[in-house]
């Protein structure tokens, strides 16, 4: 998935949209998938065989990954921030041996992330995500002095990746899935802030000081705006467009100002952050932190950053504050020194000066309260798990996705007969859309490889793929250990 921002003409005039490419993850729960596909089969005997096949596919794929996942969990037990130090001391490893084990863990971890369809967040995606504001309106920065900058560079030197973000030497962020977050409220302080900000921009234009305070143009947004306009016409059916609804862009009307309004922001459905704290003179840090978050608004992505600094007024806020005070006082003194001082000019200058100073103070206080609330919510509501719990969740994710890919591919081949791989890919995506109203970029090559490994599909000389009949497929896979255990639990037949 890639993220691009722009204003698509066919998406509505003046609307701010985020263009998102379809992901490879199949967003349908496995039990629901199996039940639906089973009901599409006409013969009762075939339905029974299909259910048996689904179970045997899952048991077999789980067994394939068991050893790999065990190695991953054993390696992480050495770098668990809570108990890892004690385990490393018990093992009596040398520093060089620990360095090797760290890279082995990260290699296994990246493989699992790839299989789970997680992607590394890039600088471009972060800039697009942060080009707007949602609920978090303070500049949040990472205290980089508290983060290790040796572990990840060593890994990426051995395993190069494209489009690494600028912070990848200290921490990495993965993301998967897209959602929408909506918030309805009066947003009194935010509306007041918006009104004062627009008055401030008017003041800058009138005094011709706009260039002094104008921000550097957002090159990413401008480039992606053009790109979005070009792509909307060609791939509107392929990509997902999610609209941003923000207070800054709200129409200034009495109805909007006095009533509840709803703002909207795209979210990353899942985010995982990996980092290590910096070592000190008294202690060498070996713990690796793995934190798992859900439903993080793109514009509030700072919530997942590690080792955040306490926010404060930005240097630009102080500059604006001081300059506006100086300009206001100069204008006020000049007005009073005129032979016929205009009382309305004096009142306007004083009102503007007091209003802007009040804006800075009250906006900061409101944002600080919101920040503390969001941080608390991110810890209790949005953080799914950390450490071993996250890894166990990821391992199960991999198995579920692999099983669903195999089941869907086999079902299409069973129903449609011999197919070319590109046709199989399209048929699988159409099935997911027609039966579950979900879009995904189906990973057909990976699915076919697993079917071939199971021995239940083959390719002819022309490259077309066909599957063996259901009953034969179950015979080829054979009775699994899980089935034998369940049979033993049931006891001898009466």
**Beta-strand content:** 5-15%
Overall helicity? 55-70%
Q: What would the average pLDDT be, to the nearest integer? A: 82
Low-confidence stretches: 7-13, 215-237
Intertermini distance: 56 Å
Structural class: alpha+beta
- Total DSSP helices: 17
For the biggest sheet, the summary is: 5 strands, antiparallel
Instruction: Provide the succession of SSEs.
Output: EEHHHHEHHEHHHEHEEHHEHHHEEHH
Strand order of the largest sheet: 3-4-6-7-8
Radius of gyration: 29 Å
Q: What is the 3D form? A: globular
What is the strand tally? 10
Task: Report what the structure shows.
There is one protein chain. Among the domains are: 19-58 and 392-487, no CATH class; 315-363. 55% of the residues lie in helices and 13% in strands. The chain has helices at residues 30-39, 44-79, 84-91, 95-115, 123-129, 151-158, 188-207, 210-213, 219-235, 254-258, 315-337, 343-382, 388-416, 421-436, 444-454, 470-477, 481-490, and strands at residues 3-6, 16-20, 119-120, 171-185, 240-244, 261-275, 289-297, 383-386, 457-459, 465-467. The strands form 3 sheets. Strands 3-4-6-7-8 form a 5-stranded antiparallel beta sheet.
A few lines on this structure:
The chain contains 17 helices and ten strands.
Jot down its keywords:
single chain; 494 residues; alpha+beta; three-stranded antiparallel β-sheet; 17 helices; transmembrane; membrane; DUF3754; (wild Malaysian banana) hypothetical protein
Give me the secondary-structure topology:
Blueprint lengths: L2 E4 L9 E5 L9 H10 L4 H36 L4 H8 L3 H21 L3 E2 L2 H7 L21 H8 L12 E15 L2 H20 L2 H4 L5 H17 L4 E5 L9 H5 L2 E15 L13 E9 L17 H23 L5 H40 E4 L1 H29 L4 H16 L7 H11 L2 E3 L5 E3 L2 H8 L3 H10 L4
Antiparallel strand pairs: 1-2, 2-5, 3-4, 4-6, 6-7, 7-8, 9-10
Helix pairs in contact: 1-13, 2-3, 2-4, 2-13, 2-16, 4-13, 7-12, 11-12, 13-14, 13-15
Organism: Musa acuminata subsp. malaccensis (Wild banana)
Pfam families: DUF3754 (PF12576)
InterPro entries: DUF3754
């Amino acid at each position: 998935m890639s993220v691009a921002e722009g204003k698509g003409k066919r998406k509505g005039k003046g609307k701010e949209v985020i263009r998102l490419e379809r992901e490879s993850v199949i967003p349908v729960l496995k039990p629901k998938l199996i039940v639906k596909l089973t009901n599409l089969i006409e013969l009762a005997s075939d339905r029974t065989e299909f259910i048996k096949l689904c179970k045997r596919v899952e048991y077999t794929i789980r067994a394939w990954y068991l050893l790999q996942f065990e190695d991953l969990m054993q390696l992480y037990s050495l770098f668990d921030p809570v108990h890892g130090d004690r385990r490393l001391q018990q093992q009596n490893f040398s520093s060089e041996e620990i360095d090797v084990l760290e890279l082995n863990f990260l290699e296994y971890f990246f493989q699992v992330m790839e299989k789970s369809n997680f992607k590394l967040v890039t600088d471009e995606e972060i800039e697009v995500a942060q080009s707007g504001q949602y609920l978090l309106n303070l500049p949040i920065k990472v205290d980089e002095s508290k983060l290790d900058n040796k572990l990840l560079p060593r890994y990426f030197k051995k395993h190069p990746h494209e489009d690494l973000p600028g912070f990848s030497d200290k921490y990495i962020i993965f993301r998967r899935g897209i959602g929408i977050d909506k918030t309805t409220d009066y947003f009194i302080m935010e509306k007041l802030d918006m009104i004062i900000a627009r008055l401030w921009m008017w003041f800058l234009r009138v005094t011709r000081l706009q260039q002094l305070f104008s921000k550097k143009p957002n090159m990413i947004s401008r480039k992606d705006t053009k790109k979005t306009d070009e792509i909307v016409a060609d791939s509107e059916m392929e990509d997902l467009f999610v609209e941003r609804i923000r207070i800054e862009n709200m129409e200034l009307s009495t109805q909007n100002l006095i009533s509840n309004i709803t703002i909207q922001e795209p979210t990353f459905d899942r985010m995982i952050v990996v980092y290590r704290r910096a070592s000190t003179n008294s202690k060498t840090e070996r713990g690796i932190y793995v934190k798992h978050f859900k439903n993080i608004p793109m514009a509030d992505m700072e919530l997942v950053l590690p080792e955040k600094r306490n926010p404060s007024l930005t240097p630009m806020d102080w500059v604006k504050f001081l300059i506006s005070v100086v300009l206001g006082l100069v204008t006020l003194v000049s007005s009073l020194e005129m032979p016929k001082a205009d009382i309305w000019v004096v009142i306007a200058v004083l009102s503007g000066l007091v209003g802007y100073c009040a804006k800075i103070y009250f906006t900061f206080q409101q944002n600080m309260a919101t920040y503390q609330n969001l941080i608390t919510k991110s810890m209790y509501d949005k953080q799914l798990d950390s450490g071993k719990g996250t890894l166990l969740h990821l391992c199960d994710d991999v198995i579920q996705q692999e099983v669903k890919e195999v089941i869907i591919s086999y079902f299409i081949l069973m129903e449609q007969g011999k197919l070319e791989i590109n046709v199989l890919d399209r048929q699988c995506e159409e099935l997911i859309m027609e039966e579950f109203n979900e879009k995904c970029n189906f990973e057909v090559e990976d699915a076919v490889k697993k079917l071939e490994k199971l021995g239940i599909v083959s390719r002819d000389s022309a490259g077309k793929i066909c599957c063996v009949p259901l009953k034969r497929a179950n015979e080829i896979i054979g009775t699994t250990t899980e089935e034998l255990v369940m049979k033993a639990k049931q006891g001898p037949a009466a």
